[in-house]
Amino acid sequence: MVFRRLAAAAALAFVSTVALVSAQDFPKGPVTMLVPFAAGGPTDVVARLVARVMEKELGQPVLVENATGAGGTLASGRLARATPDGQTILLHHMGITTSATLYRKLAYDPKTAFGFVGQVTTVPMLLVSRPNFEPADFKALLAYIKDNKDKVSLANAGPGAVSHICGMLFMQLTGVKLTTVPYKGTGPAMTDTIGGQVDLLCDQTTGATGPVKTHKVKAYATATAERIPVLPDVPTAAELGLKGFEVGVWHGMYVPAGTPAPVIDKLNAALKAALHDPETVRRFAELGTAPVSDAEATPEGLKAKYFAEIDRWAPIIKAAGEYAD
């Protein structure tokens, strides 16, 4: 019995020493930040703003790699298979949680594959339409889609995209099933909305603010609890009577499961430095967003958000019956 206790104590001391050494040595070289979407897109912009400051804090380059494909699950799978040493991290939006239900088969277990660094930011969403769409305001829109549901099209950026999830929530809350039109990205979806090929689109402020301000699309409502500063004249859906229509494109930073806590602590400190950086704050404001609070920018804050969002979206996705292979 004494021998077993000594052996257990020795093993614990060894593990603690290994963790300490790995934290002291980290990072050993450039850190790869996986981004599941194309360069220049909203998530990529957020990632590069954060990486710019993190590499100063870590003393090594933070290289953003756009690992696109399979609705973001390709990058998630790569992270799940990576060595848990902090040298590979992932910056992903809320799609990492909706994919847990949306995809029938994944190459990883979304409930056990990841470790958590912290939340980053939340980008607001809003519902827009082609500029000559008949309904003049949100109340008229709700009446119109109920009377013309077979004729109204709702664009999205593809299966698993936030615009897809936002559209599913809108249809569930209104009780109206519209014709959904998937695109290969928000860019072409917005282009066809502006051109009048599709009627409606739920998009991030990062992509929709410009077209709204130049009257290339019509804004009906924001999917937020409060009005957003960059578009103060656009009311929230809740103000107009549609309760529960709230979708924010929140972003989080992840590591492979099993990454030592001291390494995560170093990454978290670098992330928080980025979120307090004046240039980051300024650029986020231009995109219609802001850094999350210090409490949210923690491993515990992200972990709680992650599992709450899986539970939130699972029944909505199942009710819609829209799955991805």
TrEMBL record:
Coiled coil: none annotated. The keyword Signal applies. SUPFAM superfamilies: Periplasmic binding protein-like II (SSF53850). Keywords: Signal. Residues 1-23 form the signal peptide. InterPro entries: BUG, Bug_dom1. PANTHER family: BLR1237 PROTEIN (PTHR42928:SF5), TRICARBOXYLATE-BINDING PROTEIN (PTHR42928). Belongs to the UPF0065 (bug) family. This is Tripartite tricarboxylate transporter substrate binding protein BugD. It comes from Methylopila turkensis. The lineage of its organism: Bacteria, Pseudomonadati, Pseudomonadota, Alphaproteobacteria, Hyphomicrobiales.
